[in-house]
Every structure is written in C-alpha cells, then in structure tokens.
Amino acid sequence: xxxxxxxxxxxxxxxxxxxxxxxxxxxxxxxxxxxxxxxxxxxxxxxxxxxxxxxxxxxxxxxxxxxxxxxxxxxxxxxxxxxxxxxxxxxxxxxxxxxxxxxxxxxxxxxxxxxxxxxxxxxxxxxxxxxxxxxxxxxxxxxxxxxxxxxxxxxxxxxxxxxxxxxxxxxxxxxxxxxxxxxxxxxxxxxxxxxxxxxxxxxxxxxxxxxxxxxxxxxxxxxxxxxxxxxxxxxxxxxxxxxxxxxxxxxxxxxxxxxxxxxxxxxxxxxxxxxxxxxxxxxxxxxxxxxxxxxxxxxxxxxxxxxxxxxxxxxxxx
Length: 318
Known about the structure:
By secondary structure, this protein is α/β, with parallel strands linked by helices. It contains eleven helices and 13 strands.
C-alpha cells in the first residue's frame, strides 16, 4: 500500500466531516479520518453509490439541484467540517445556492474546504504562478470555478463561513493514473514543445486538507500541486517503462486528432508553485513528482494482488 507513515494526521478525533460530492478525493480523506474516530457523511447523485457508501460506514444521501436536503439543520447539526467538491454548473455552485446560508448558520462549524482548480490562473506561457497571481481563466471550466470561488468567498466575508480554498492540479492516484490509461490503450504521447501539466497525488491532497483542518485559517487559498510540472508525453513514457509496455508513437500537437475538450487542456501552460502548503501548513509531499507517485500506484497493485493470492491460498487450505 501507499507509504503514508509520514503523512500528517488529524489533531482532533471524533469530529464529523460532511462531503458535498463524495468522490475520489473525498473517499481518500474520509478513509484517513475514520481511522481516527471521525464520522463521515456525504452526498452522491447515484443510488447504487449511496448504497455502497452506506456499506462502507458513510452516512450517505442523494443530492443535486432536484434532490435538495430535506432538513439542512438536522443534517448539519453535528457536522464540524465540510468538504465541497461538486463542480459548478452554468447557474453557479449548487451547494452555495441551496445550502450556503444554512452552513453559515451552523455555530459548531470549524472548517469548510472548497476544492477548486488551478485552471483559474489561465495561461502563463510556462511561467510560474502562485496564490498571489491574478486569476485569468482562458476556459469555460476555469471561468465557472472563479465564479464559484467568488460565491463562497461572499459567504465567508458576509456571513463568517470558515472557508478555505484549495486549487488542485490534475489529480491522480490508484486506479486513476497514467498506468491505467496505458493499460486501457487510451494513453497518447502528444508533443507540444515547452508545454507542461501540473499534477498531484490524491494522498497528498488528503494530507494537505488534514493539515489545513489542524490549523484553520479562514480566507486562505492554497495551491495543491507536486514539485515537478512535466510534459504529458514524459509521464506516459515513464508509465510504459514502469510496466513493460511499448510506448505509443509520438504525435505532434498540431497534427493530433482529439476532442475539443481534450485540446482545450493544452491551451493553458503554467507551472504551479506549492511553497505555501509547505511553509504555512508544514506539508511534506509523499509523492513530490510523478515518478514516485506512479511507482506507489504500481506498488499498491502488487500489494493487492499478493493479498488476494494469500486469501485464495488460505481459502483452499481451509
């Protein structure tokens, strides 16, 4: 499994986290917190996933624009921390619109974290950006995120919501990495000279959020990214070498056929600084670059395979 022995642990025990949008990142955070006696609740739009969450010990409920919370005050009565990870839509942030005011009235609420993205910075032709860089999104998704950030910031300034914003780079981890796309045959090596992407391992997001919970700073904004912005083709090549698969051919960006949404990701070119999470929160990245991160993903697969083999042998012996 991933080596998290040096990751940051929650200082408080027996609190309750409510996740609006119980997705990939929220599940890793919840798993960490539940080991320290935290209760976790969360929302989903999928009835089958709701059942899965409940089986895993999560207080789960359906939630979207058409399925609002039946009784927000009862839902939030013992919630101390809130994670916001539902993407905004054309009409803004659903949670801010439906339940932002309700959350602001919860006196026991200690911390609210909004998961935004580094797409809010737009294009900087490969230059470094940090939290003081002006937001200038070049994509629709980046613009929607800026609008959502402003909605939540308004609730912080006007209603005292203990909000912090986390601008995440591209998220990867077990089951969602270049290794998986290579195996699925969907990985491509696109050559766009001097272009880089920023990324972050999901375990490092989880420990950064816990670090922020340990020392709340309402109004704070943090970039969450690793130390090594890299070309996507470089990452694909490393993943192929790691698992012994021939790398796909290199295709020049101007000759590559790709969906408009995929092409739009290449419009922005920037390097995201992560100094603030290290200096202000004391975060020491578990996976400071894609190499260590992908190696960890592969190690988890090996550990899981070994465990399954052991269980099968044990069952045969029994």
